[in-house]
Amino acid sequence: MKQQDKNSHASLDQAVAAVRAEQPENEAVRAAGERVWQRLSENAQSAAGSMALNSIRGCDDVRKILSRYRSGQLSGAQALLVESHLHECIACRHEAETGKRSTTVVPWQHELPRATNPGFRWVLAAAAMVVIAVGGYFLQDKLFSRAGMRARVESMGGQLFRVGFSGEQPLKVGDELGEGEKIRTGGGSRAMIRLRDGSLVEMNERAEFAVSMGVRDTTIQLGRGNIIVQAAKRKSGHLYVAAKDCRVAVTGTVFSVHSGVKGSRVSVIEGEVRVAALGANSVLHPGQQLSTNAAVATVPVQQEIAWSQNLDKHLALLVAFQHLENRLETVQMPGLRYESKILPLLPANTVLFASIPNLGDAAQQANLLFQQELQESPVLRDWWQQVQARKHGPDLQEILNEVHALGGYLGDEIVFAASLGGVRHGGPLVIAQVRKAGLKEFIAQEYPNQARLRVVDDQELKELSAQPDKELVILVRPDFVVASGDVATLQSFEAALDAGNGGFAGSPFGQRMAAAYQSGVGILFGANLQEMTRNQVTDRPYRHHSQEVFQSSGFSDLQYLVAERKEVNGQMLNHADLTFNGPRRGVASWLAAPAAIGGLDFVSKDAGAAAAFVTKSPAAILDDALNIAYTSDPKAETNITRGESELHIRFREDLAETLGGEVTFALDGPILPTPSWKVVVEVNNSGRLQSTIQQLVADANEHNADHPERHVSMEQESVNGLTYYVLRFQDSGKNAEVDYTFTDGYLILAPSRALVMNAIGIHQSGNSLARSNDFHSLLPNDQHADVSAVVYQNLAPLVGPVLQQLPASQARSFQQLAAETKPSVVCAYGDANAVRVASNSRFFGLDLNTLAISTLLKMAQPGSYRVD
Q1: In the chain, how many domains are there?
Q2: E strand intervals along 588-745
Q3: b/e string for 843-864 if b means 16 or more Cβ within 10 A?
Q4: Nearest Cα to 258, choosing from 249, 250, 268, 272?
Q5: How many CB atoms lie within 10 A of CB 31?
Q6: DSSP for 687-711?
Q7: Has residue 694 been placed in a domain?
Q8: CA–CA gap between residue 472 and residue 487 (Å, rounded)
Q9: Count of alpha carbons within 13 Å of 774, Cβ hemisphere only?
């Protein structure tokens, strides 16, 4: 019986969906309407001719028509009124049943008086129309949504089913889906579904969803699994993805939603996504991710979408981007600037300063190279056509042409500046010198219909009042052009221009920025962190203990951040200084002064990546950390004492004081089947540190005595005068190990004894990264013989073993990326009052090919594609 009910419900659902999807011809609709109207007219005339009684107002009227009621001659409405009266009136009910009249007459309490005002009928009709309209507004998505198909199967690999109460139905390419129909991919299957609004949904295996569509909005009801959505641009409404524990809203973007047993994970590939989950609303941007459950850890976005059938296309596009990036490096950039005509004109309270060269000619060169790449690369050309199809407004070539034309009117420097007052009122400034006349007419011609853009001269600016709506005001003078979104800021700067001095050059921050020009600048950025921090504390006071924590950290002493990027003799130089008002202290002082880092002697010259740094005494670091803890938490001291008692160690004497201040991490060797990582730590007392490790192992096993599946074992063996230790970790059937030994004042850790022994062999042979000529050639040219920290990457050699795990098309793409990748180094120096960073590599070593290859290495790890 239950199965029959389910089949009945399923049949009813299918019938309703079919009726809603059916769209009759206009002629059929008109003919049906005429037939209905004719039938209503005939019924009304028949009722009027067969009944002389115009209304039923009480017992007398009911008794007059009882005989006709019993014989079934009354209309439906009259019969209902009579039956309602008989339920309430005992006397009339007795007469209806027996045919004898009772002497007691009970008046009808619900009689309907005759309408004497014909205009009142129009009032009732109008009220009814209002009710219908309001109800229709709120129910339009349910009752008046557009009929027809909701989605269509565009492509598939494997099995795809329409599922419901009545069972499953295999689908094929071209099949259409109706309102609320569920579809599901089989194991090892993929599918591409095109929604009626143009959005594209890619389904991973065992994914399930349905589509519902209202007048304005479209909702993907994700039941389970992983999907990638390429949302179409919409003029109104939103595309929603509703999972069991979150709701995602977009208007034209690319994102992934994974709904698993433990929770959901939303990953953004392109554009902006709004997620409602965990009782809050979040906004995610490209590369960002949100999980609805702490048990669902975040993963790299590239890994989350690695199953996509478009992965080959994405990899080929990365290769095209890399090739384009390398070609753009050949663009001739403007020469260095050794003075600024604009800097002295800025207000004295300027806290942000950025200077870039006039890129008009460089933009034209870049445009020519880009157009050539579009002609030579089908992959890049297809991608660009898709981008242009999704966008409205001028294309890139038009924009670059305008930049080139505008650059002809401007001087060799463009400055962005903001002061505290300007920031508060939304009025930063963009300033450039004017090279030739006609700039005002050029802007008016290029942007004739921009409602929020106003071009004025100095006289028009004086007469201009503050606008209630934000608009960009551009002041064009014979000597300077200045743009701002705040009229008052612009008028104030106009006065400084007339005076010839704004006061910035006389301020300490202005003098620091002016000093950078002495050696020539390309791109220059500066921030007065001291004033910005002071202003932040004044405007938004911290809680008392939070302010004390900030003071204890040492970052309250921050003064300036100054960063530069320029090209000298064909070599790119990047440099950044973070300065303090006095000697660095607290957390800000943890990075020590430059020193020799011996840990690099244990890293081979063929390492894929390495990071090494030297800190001040670990005991002093512990003191700083405890000071912050005691400041922020009154119970911290008690908790730390209890922790030492439970672990049977003293954090300072047994741990911090046994360590030196030097640490090196490296990826040094094959990454399959286990990544060849190593950690090299300087030690001052290896015997006491080993005792501490043994005590921690004993405490861990004692703590997990009731969970034998969680166990840590320690073994040791002496080989060639060294004692090798191995820690084996077991947790619910999963095993891992860490091998280590002590030698030459260092602790060397790795996932196997062979790697530990290999590190010692590199140290003894001297064939290390620290002594590699290729490594030295990447180091920045400065006065420092040592560094406080260094980060190195050369991921290309690691690609070879991974390529064997990839399909041929993907392997070719990564081979091309590896061929064009370049190693890079970033160095940091801890001075008494500053931390300085320098690199000769592009973008401080962060370029597209490095990121792409690092993604490949993550994808190659075992277990990368597990399903939650």
Answers
A1: 4
A2: 609-614, 659-667, 677-683, 710-719, 722-731, 734-743
A3: ebbebbbbebbbbbbebbeeee
A4: 268
A5: 12
A6: HHHHHHHHHHHHHHHHHTTT-TTEE
A7: yes
A8: 9
A9: 13
Tokens representing 124 are 């009732």
Q: Which residues contact 454 (CB under 8 A, 6 or more apart)?
A: 464, 471, 472, 473, 474
Give, in degrees to the nearest 5, the angle at Cα 483 between 482 and 486: 120
pTM exceeding 0.70: no
Q: Are strands 273-277 and 246-250 parallel, antiparallel or unpaired?
A: antiparallel
- Domain carrying residue 387: 310-335+359-395
CB-based contacts of 136, cutoff 8 Å, min separation 6: 143, 144
Strands of 58-140 (E only): list them: none
Assign residue 274 the CATH number of its domain. Answer: 2.60.120.1440
Structure confidence by residue, pLDDT tens digits, 361-415: 888 888 888 888 888 888 778 777 766 665 555 566 777 778 888 888 999 999 9
Confidence label for 671 from pLDDT (cuts 50, 70 and 90) = confident
pLDDT tens sequence across 420-476: 764 444 478 999 999 999 888 888 887 776 667 888 888 888 888 766 566 888 999
- 184 belongs to a structural domain: yes
Query: Which three-class secondary structure state does DSSP give residue 663?
Result: strand
245 & 322 share domain: no
What is the Cα–Cα distance from 359 to 654, expressed in whole angstroms? 59
Q: Return d(Cα 384, Cα 324) in angstroms, integer.
A: 13
Number of other CB atoms surrounding residue 497 within 10 Å:
17
Q: Are residues 302 and 323 in the same domain?
A: no
Residues 92 and 169 in one domain: no
Quote the strand ranges of 196-308, DSSP E.
200-203, 208-213, 218-230, 239-242, 246-250, 254-259, 264-270, 273-277, 280-284, 289-291
Separation of alpha carbons 662 and 614, rounded Å: 4
Hey, which bits of 308-390 come out as E strands?
Answer: 350-357
Contact 434, 477 (CB under 8 A): yes
* Angle at 855 (CA atoms; ends 853, 858), nearest 5 degrees: 115
Long-range CB pairs of 270-274, under 8 A, 24+ apart, other chains included: 271/231, 273/248, 273/249, 274/248, 274/249, 274/250
Contact 377, 369 (CB under 8 A): no
Q: How distant is the alpha carbon of residue 672 from its chain centre?
A: 31
Examine the domain organization and report whether 376 and 247 are in the same domain.
Answer: no
Are 60 and 178 contained in the same domain? no
Phi, psi torsion values for 174, nearest 5 degrees = 100, -15
Residue 619 inside a domain? The answer is yes
Q: Are residues 254 and 369 in the same domain?
A: no
Q: Is 265 helix (H, G, I), strand (E, B) or coil?
A: strand
| Strands 218-230 vs 208-213: parallel, antiparallel or unpaired | antiparallel
Give CA–CA dist 855/852, Å, rounded: 5
- The residues, any chain, with a CB within 8 Å of residue 739's CB and separated by 6 or more, are 724, 725, 726, 727, 749, 750, 751, 752, 753, 755, 756
Q: Are residues 731 and 842 in the same domain?
A: yes
pLDDT in tens, 734-789: 778 999 999 999 999 999 999 999 999 999 999 999 999 999 988 988 888 899 99
Rg value, the chain, Cα: 38
Nearest CA among 691, 726, 722 for reference residue 712: 726
Is there a contact between 228 and 201 (Cβ–Cβ < 8 Å)? yes
Q: Are 608 and 769 in contact (CB under 8 A)?
A: no
- Tell me: do 728 and 845 sit in the same domain: yes
Q: Give dist(CA 494, CA 476) in Å, integer.
A: 11
Q: Does a structural domain hold residue 439?
A: no
CA distance 814 to 341: 48
Distance of alpha carbon 549 from alpha carbon 534, whole angstroms? 15
For 411-435, write each residue's pLDDT tens digit: 999 999 998 764 444 478 999 999 9
